[in-house]
Amino acid sequence: MQKDNDSSMDKIENLPLVSLIVRTKNRPALLTEALQSITGQTYLNIEIIVVNDGGDDIDEIIGLFKDDAITIIPLQFATGIGRSKAANAGLDKASGKYIAFLDDDDWLEPEHVQQLLELLENPSHADCVAAYAGVRCIDQETGNTIKLFNQPYNPAALKLENYIPVHAALFRRNVIDGPASCRFDETFDLFEDWDFWLQLQAQGNFIRSQEITANYRIVNGSSGEGVIADESRAIDALHAVIDKWRHKWSTDDIIEIIAHARLLAKLLDKTELLRSQLDLDKQQLMLQLSIANQEIDNIKQANDLLLNSLSWRITKPLRALRRTLTINPEKIFTLKQAVWSILIRAYQNQYLQPLIRLIPFNLKHSLKTLFIPRAQDRKRVRDPKNLKVSIIIPVYNHSKHLRECIDSALKQTYGNLEVVICDDASPDSEVRKILDQYLDQPKIKILYSDKNNGISATQNQLLIASTGDVIAFLDCDDYLAGDAIEIALSAWQDDTVYLHTGRINIDEDGAEVNRISFEHLPRQDYFLENLDRMFATHLKIIHRDAFAKVGLFDPRFDSAQDYDMLMRIAFHYPTQAFVHIPDKLYFHRLHKKQTTVSMNDKQLANTQLIQKEATARQEIRNGKFSHFISIIMLSYGKKEQTLEALLSLEKTVNIPHEIILFDNGSAQETVDFIKHNIEGRFDNLKVFYNDTNLGPAAGRREALQHASGDWFIIFDNDEIAEPGWIEELLVRASSDQNIGAVCCKVIFPDESLQFSGGNIRHLDDQLILLDLYDKGKNTYDLETAQFRECDWCPIGATLFTVNPALFLHDGYPNVFEDAGVSMALRREGKRLVNCPGSWVWHEHMVYRKNIDMKDRYVNDRYDPLKMITSLRSFYKENGLIIQDEYIWRENRLNGLTREELIGLLSQ
């Protein structure tokens, strides 16, 4: 046992020593917590210098940690010497290769030191003098996070303000030992850490960890002066810092600071409305919660009255209902989910529907707002040492080389990986026999296709089945060097999206033919440089998020699908997101049997089309497109959101276009807001006002009467366009002259999807359900990134290549007008498709508080009698009956026979 301990100590001593300086004064309980956060670090070779700045004796506290492996060196001063002198005293005592600070009222997460040290030890960061992490500021009384420091590194920004709390950073010792001899300025008693960072920045760059691993405690306003400080004292300290540094900064430095400040001011001006939304009055919020709680009590009382009635107690079917309300505890994670589960079951139960119908819709909507479950936050792993790799292998024949391929993936020196294989219905019977031999391998997942789907569909199937943070591509007749993944990920950076390597070409017997790499190429602009020919190839490792962002492989481009994927990623991501390493890690097999002439022709045609579409995206971004676009937006309340939607269009649409804003009978307050804050603000905007509300279909029809475009985009006024949305939407619409409509990928603020297109489920020859593709899934779920044909297109964020006014009429007063338009387009032979790379965020009222005209909007939008009219119109036009749970319940349609229902809809 002693030998094992000695071995562990040797390993620790071989690690670089980190000195952590803790300044303290008369806060024993907090000091104990701070020291515990250090002794709990995953990195163990740490010395702690505790500087007691004239406070009570801390020997007893130090004694609590005598058994820890970490060394603690106390420094005691009889009287207070001040923050800066205390910091310098700690620096003089520190002997570590790296140094950090922690004040006694703050604390660190266990991985803080480890993650920052790994950044500074990385040879690619040799020019960096410090690494810093994100910091959360926590109110001691409430436990709430009141501020986050997690800003990307920007030298000009650091000269403008200090966004790096003192315990956020780890820095190299040479900055205090070298000629610069950086020290805390002892004339400062506030912003001394800012001044220290400016000294360090003059010696080199900083590198940022995106993880939040440090905590800043705010206790009754007595600490956290970097967050909460006396205004006059802060101004005096600011003057002192500026007086010291203004003579050290060059003219270029000052221009850089001013440019950054002006950009910041411009951004703040554009988001002033949003900031005001976030600064809600606390009393108003509490009042809203009180009203909601009262509404819940009212429902509970009504429910109790029903449950205690004689008929309820003696009726057998209703006793059975009680069993349907039983909740499985294993499926309930939160109180909100439990309440929502009960409400849903109550809505769906025929015995409770009479009670549900008595509840005003606004109250039901409020309950939905309170209790609807939210999609869970998705933690995106970025640290290369924590990335899970999925090696995907599409298989079609090649049994001769398949075993070598799979073994090369399984025997990688990198441990955190899986191998996902799909046999695309290979005619070669040996393939199945070989794959069956790997069924007991824990790292392998094997899929089989019933029919041959082609390379794009097979790779998409593999991507969806994979679970890795990054995806490595391997063809079934090729193989990898044993350390290929480990070497590749050693070059992966925080912002890397696409990595590629060199390759060795081999013949059918495995003999080397030649070696290919691309280190001689400039790689200044991956989009333009790969537009001529693809060089970002073997071995390809791509971040999972990239596929979610741009869409999966397009089946149109089989044989050149990887080139199309590269060009889409290169369009949406900057060149610095691409990494090339010259190592020849991929063995690519060349076969004697040459590709057929027809296959060469197909690949050439696909390549040319990919280049044409890539060029079109670039031209659209630069303001050139063959069609004039009319964007149609209805306004009915939601005045602030209307402005935000228009600002997002202004930012993302560069081609010639017009925006028709049609106010559809809003309240005077909304009309006044549009006239004073929107009208005249946008050069390409035309505003029209209507005295009464026409409903969504007739309102859009009237708006379209004023449009002069060739193509038309319906864009709701509570949506925000993501950069790149318009380029993908227009290229998708241009891909086939028979496309009549293209819908965007519409996402709620919690990253759950509203839809990525619509499909129709036929319950019988007449009865249908209007369903939505990917509803409720996380937008980074790769199932949501597929290219699809749609049965119908929801209208709220959709492009039409023909004017939809032809199919919009008063017969759809509040719902189903989009389904009606879609069916009309299909009758004319038009295709309806989705566009997975066109992202639009939907700020739905469920996620947004204090919306003007909310009650009026809800009452009109969800009026069940008007919905009957829409059902009737759809039936008359298409001979199909839409089954909708809300409409059927509120209008008592569930008890009707089919003949009675048809009679009602035929009126």
Written overview of the protein:
This protein is an alpha/beta fold and 907 residues long. It folds into four domains: 9-251, Alpha-Beta Complex (Spore Coat Polysaccharide Biosynthesis Protein SpsA, Chain A); 282-371, no CATH class; 388-592, Spore Coat Polysaccharide Biosynthesis Protein SpsA, Chain A; 629-890, Alpha-Beta Complex (Spore Coat Polysaccharide Biosynthesis Protein SpsA, Chain A). The protein has 34 helices and 30 strands. Strands 1, 2, 3, 4, 5, 6, 7, 8 and 9 form a nine-stranded mixed sheet that branches. Strands 10, 11, 12, 13, 14, 15, 16, 17 and 18 form a nine-stranded mixed sheet that branches. A hairpin with a 5-residue loop joins strand 15 and strand 16. Helix 22 packs antiparallel against helix 24 (561-572) and helix 24 runs parallel beside helix 25 (597-621). The protein is globular and about 95 Å long. The relative contact order is 0.05. Mean pLDDT is 84; it is low at 1-5, 221-229, 267-289, 305-337 and 365-379.
